[in-house]
Write a structure and sequence with these properties.
Structural class: alpha/beta
Mean pLDDT: 97
Organism: Streptacidiphilus alkalitolerans
Distance between the termini: 45 Å
Radius of gyration: 18 Å
Shape: globular
Number of helices: 9
Order of helices and strands: HHHHEHEHEHEHEH
Low-confidence stretches: none
Protein name: Methionine synthase
Strand content: 5-15%
Bound molecules: CO-5-methoxybenzimidazolylcobamide
Largest sheet: 5 strands, parallel
Number of strands: 5
Helix content: 55-70%
Length: 215
């Protein structure tokens, strides 16, 4: 198989052996971030489709996720870093009840590599933990990720909690994750949140939003 297809197969099949060698080959011909975005994420997309249509069982999805994480970790040192630092702080979390963290961790990498301080709280974070961390670290922005449809409701509740605590004016919020739509965030949630709330389709839009919100 050609290199790109081979890498995608590794993600879909959850096959880790030989991964590094293939990634080294890919690094010789394209930047690390392109490998993630154009090659590996396609593999994860296939995994999602297979799982969604019942052709792949959960333990295999988990294996695919592990290979994806291994690949991102291997590529991270090869990613471009800007010399900027201290541009601002974001508290980043996957919301309560949701374990999906590959996207969130990509956001962490992209923002960290571009001069932002990222306080990554991890997965299944209750709103209290997110808000406490935002205050403790004097965050400029709160970022929430979630991939389950259920998480889109939790995000709404979290924004209401920010309103109730009188924190909305101080904390712009960026939301991302596959179950969200731009309209849900920029219309529905925009209406209920007393501060700024924005939708990031991918990690790069997250970066652009950070630059816009803080810069
Ligand atoms: Co789950 N899962 N999963 N899963 N899983 C989905 C999300 C699903 C769509 C699959 C499907 O049915 N086709 C489906 C959700 C259905 C729904 O809610 N309507 C689903 C389900 C049902 C489940 C379980 C409930 C299955 C079960 O137990 N029966 C369970 C949930 C557990 C829980 O959370 N409580 C579950 C479990 C898992 C695994 C543990 C096996 C594994 C996760 C491993 C891990 O993350 N450590 C997993 C995986 C891998 C997936 C799919 C296949 C791939 C997700 C992924 O990593 N994509 C997923 C299918 C899909 O998404 N279509 C699926 C790659 C990643 C880079 O993309 O996270 O979207 P993503 O991030 C993107 C953007 O969204 C954005 O930037 C990234 C790209 O640059 N972004 C942000 C994300 N967060 C952002 C935050 C920002 C900015 C941008 O700023 C704050």
């Amino acid at each position: 198989l050609p290199l790109e297809e081979r890498l995608q197969r590794r993600i879909v099949d959850g096959e880790r052996k030989g991964l590094e060698a293939d990634l080294d080959q890919a690094l010789a011909v394209m930047p690390a971030l392109d490998i993630v975005n154009t090659v590996l994420l396609e593999g994860m997309k296939t995994v999602g489709e297979l799982f969604g249509s019942g052709q792949m069982q959960l333990p295999f999805v988990l294996q695919s996720a592990e290979v994806m994480k291994g690949a991102v970790a291997y590529l991270e040192p090869h990613m471009e870093k800007s010399d900027d630092e201290g541009k601002g702080t974001i508290v980043l979390a996957t919301v309560k009840g949701d374990v999906h963290d590959i996207g969130k961790n990509l956001v962490d990498i992209i923002l960290s590599n571009n001069g932002y301080t990222v306080v990554n709280l991890g997965i299944k974070q209750p709103v209290s933990a997110i808000l406490d961390a935002a205050q403790e670290h004097r965050a400029d922005v709160i970022g929430m990720s979630g991939l389950l449809v259920k998480s889109t409701v939790i995000m709404k509740e979290n924004l209401q909690e920010l309103n109730q605590r009188g924190m909305a004016a101080d904390f712009p919020v960026i939301l991302g994750g596959a179950a969200l739509t731009r309209a849900y965030v920029e219309q529905d949630l925009h209406e209920i949140y007393a501060g700024e709330v924005r939708y990031a389709r991918d990690a790069f839009e997250g970066l652009r939003l950070m630059d816009a919100l803080i810069g």
